[in-house]
SET domain-containing protein (Aphanomyces euteiches), 233 residues
Amino acid sequence: MDETLPTSTEEDPILLIRGEDNLYKCLECGHKLEEYDAMRMHYKRCHGLKAERKRKKTEEEKNEDARLRKVRFNERKSAARALAALSKHRPLFSFADAQLRGTYGADNPIVTSMELSIPTAGYGVFAAVDLREGDVVTSYDGDIVYDMPADPTYVLSIDLGKKSAWVDGLSKRQLGKGLGSFVNREDRTKKVFKNCEYLQHGKKMFIRVTKTIKSGSELFTDYGPGYRFKSDK
């Protein structure tokens, strides 16, 4: 004789949630089972009910979710356009701005530095305002040397004529000094890409932005062999 299964109801399915004992408990009879599929079958065979891990959304709910996603997308797009339009109305930050507002401890700074949350990672440089391509934001301060230092960690090459020269950059932050030596390197394996570059102006090195950087975002550059840089001399 064929077994007759109870008829499922038209109501929303029962949500299956594991208890503190890591078992599913039937809300109808108190029976407990470990396996999700076994509890679903128990509800169907014994009580004629549907059970699922989560309730399926109705078409109305799906449509509402899609509408809200579109609204959020348009809001972000409008905000980005407004930011781009606003930034176009101000002059690019200059070398003078970088030396005045791009230093450690500056008033109304363009960039700031802070210790990174990763142990032993040191400091990073972050935009204090929204930056755009072409902004010169800080200088690469340090001592100019003509012999490669024993510790090349913060060494940056500079073109001062026929003789090789380097800037032995700061390893510790100093009030009134630029933050260029604390800009970290891009890491493509972690999808951290370059957004600024080294630039020589006279006998000093600076950091120039190569793409839009929002306030609070970190600056990254490409160290390269000998630290490649551009010159506007």
In short: Helices lie at 36-47, 59-88, 95-101. The radius of gyration is 30 Å. Confidence is low (pLDDT under 50) at residues 1-10, 225-231. DSSP finds three helices and 15 strands in the chain.
